[in-house]
Amino acid sequence: MTVQSIFSQLTKEEDDPIIKTMQEYTRDPNPGKIDVSIGVQKDKSGKCYEYRSIAEAKHILAENDPGHNYTSMAGIGDFVSGAQRLIFGDDILAERGSNIASIQAISGTGSLHIAMLFYKTIGLTEYYIGVPTWQNYGPMVKHIGGETHYYSYYDESTKSVDFKSILATLNSVPVHSVFLFQTCCHNPTGSDFTHAQWQEISNIMKQRRLIPIFDTAYQGLGSGDLDADAWPIRYFFNQGFEFAVCQSFSKNMGLYSERVGCVHVVLQDSGYLPAVQSNLVALFRKECSFAPAFGARLAAIILNNAKLEERWRCEVKETTLRLKYLRKRVLDKLTELKTPGNWTNVVEQNGLFWFSGLTSEQNSKLIKKHVYSTSMGRVNISGLNERNIDHFCRAIDEVVREE
Ligand SMILES: Cc1ncc(COP(=O)(O)O)c(C=O)c1O
């Protein structure tokens, strides 16, 4: 390239490795190929799971077409209030609802972005993040001009949370350091803190004046109960913390492409509500102006209709039970095949992902057997079904024995 260009300083950005895997999967002509890579919930036939309650909400919306006018700067009111209730629960809202500022934002990613920008405006830029983790956090912190510090989240030897490392980090960082936590169904490890561990974390954070930020992208898909999965957030609220929550409806309503989410900011003195709320709105105005309406309207219909909400909650439970059933099937099959190694973590972990412990090399060998997982060993359990689960387990068995 010899022509002088204003773009000459740019180099090509790397694709997300998962995109490459998806392209290879699409090109593979084998009818028995299995996709357990990208983090979307699949149904029994391997298609993206579509919630029946969302189909019903679409129907209701079509019959009550609100048109396409601008909505409000803070988002669709009924959606934001429903989203608040889902996260904080009726009790907190009844007693201290005026201690929560909330706006609609662009799903989980956009909510995180607005929360990070908001934290920056109040001087919070140092982020502590346990790894492995969702790969977008680091680049997102860098993008807003913050600094990321990593600690170990997962102990390969015990195949569970590396709690010692977290405690050591909490005990050594400066005041007002930000800890970015996933509330449940940790991506990619499927390993979450226990209540006792959250309590210990909270004690140290309170004593050392550290700041949490919660990313909740899988509420309901851990335990099957949306309220139970919100426990850490409600606990930190009741412990008197000030913090942001970044909420996504991509997974628990299957609204991936509609970009439905909210940012909530908890303040201890409701006198600050007008300042916090208006700052969130002003930030969003500069970034996006208005949030997209269609998906949020569907979510609002569900969250403001008791019967439909109950049906949606049942569906969340149903899909979670299916994940648990598939995990058990994997363990049973690997046990039957006497696959070398300890595979019990498949039933101990939560949510969509199984952090299998398979290496990048083993993953490449799996691809040759038409099983498309991720190089870090993260398996999307919902991609398994009656037709492919035996092939999946046999492929793992063969790859492990090839060592
Ligand atoms: C842990 C975590 N946080 C946030 C997100 C962002 O989700 P979205 O922006 O699609 O709502 C994801 C998506 O996979 C995730 O796994």
UniProtKB/TrEMBL annotation:
Homodimer. Coiled coil: none annotated. GO terms for cellular component: cytosol. Its cofactor is pyridoxal 5'-phosphate. This is AAT22. One of its GO terms (molecular function) is pyridoxal phosphate binding. Belongs to the class-I pyridoxal-phosphate-dependent aminotransferase family. Residues 33-396 form the Aminotransferase class I/classII large domain.
